[in-house]
Amino acid sequence: MPFTHAVFDLDETLYPTSTGLMQRVARRITDWLQRRLGLDPEEASYLRRTYIQRYGTTLAGLLAEHPGRVDVEDYLAYVHDVPVETYLQPDPALRTMLAGIPLGRVIFTNATTEHAVRVLRALGVDDLFERIVDIRALNFVHKPRPEAYERLLALLNTPGRACILVDDRAVNLQPAKRWGMTTVLINGPLQDGVDFTVASVLDVGPLVHRLLRRS
Ligand SMILES: [Mg+2]
């Protein structure tokens, strides 16, 4: 089966954790919980950690525990209202690596398309992706819930075995194995559900070329 798509997670996959961008987003999430739920800072950060642990994301926790009472669009706009361009700069090496992958390039993210476009523009790679599958396209069912992968494959109209999936979290790769995707973990140990690990996203290009020669 030849590969047709290289599917990339966005945050902390296309750029490193050390940029601090996601810590800034996490602060916005805590801030939203404080303002909208009337919590103090300690309660808000405890709730954020609890929701992430129990439901995978803060938004999933809010939707589960406050059904019908959360303004999802207000939440998404608020938490992503961060100066992305002060954290990320154009990355010519990333651009060269991505441009060299002779497959459909797709973003698969629990964030919004607006945030994804902003991040991709800041990195100087927005024109290299044919599609962004965001949290709305996933009907607010986020990675790593299995339905998210089913939805991704339906939207791409492709079987899982034709996809290479790249993410910085092993937990987001494991469900993909059910559909036969080839999984690549950025900067983590080889483990269940992970076919390959690479130290940097820049190593994905050479790995894809190896896989294409093999298939
Ligand atoms: Mg990520």
Description:
- By secondary structure, the protein is of the alpha/beta class.
- 43% of the residues lie in helices and 12% in strands.
- The chain has 2 domains: 5-15 and 87-214, 3-Layer(aba) Sandwich (Rossmann fold); 21-79, Orthogonal Bundle (DNA polymerase, domain 1), CATH 1.10.150.450.
- The chain has a 6-stranded parallel beta sheet with strand order 3-2-1-4-5-6, with no helix packed on it.
- Strand 2 (104-108), helix 7 and strand 3 form a beta-alpha-beta unit.
- The model has no long low-confidence stretch (mean pLDDT 96).
- The chain binds magnesium ion.
- Magnesium ion (MG) is lined by residues 9, 11-13, 168-169.
Q: Provide the succession of SSEs.
A: EHHHHHHEHEHEEEH
Main β-sheet: number of strands, strand sense, barrel status? 6 strands, parallel
- Categorize the overall geometry: globular
Distance between the termini: 7 Å
Beta-strand segment tally: 6
CATH superfamily of the largest domain: HAD superfamily/HAD-like
Number of domains: 2
- Radius of gyration, in Å, reads 17 Å
- Overall pLDDT score: 96
In the CATH scheme, the class of the largest domain would be Alpha Beta
Mind sketching the topology for me?
Elements: E1 5-8, H1 21-37, H2 41-55, H3 58-65, H4 72-79, H5 84-87, H6 92-99, E2 104-108, H7 113-123, E3 131-133, H8 146-156, E4 163-167, E5 182-186, E6 196-198, H9 204-214
Parallel strand pairs: 1-2, 1-4, 2-3, 4-5, 5-6
Helix pairs in contact: 1-2, 2-3
This protein binds magnesium ion.
Task: List the defining traits of the structure above.
2 domains; 6 strands; 9 helices; DNA polymerase, domain 1; globular; Rossmann fold; binds magnesium ion; 215 residues
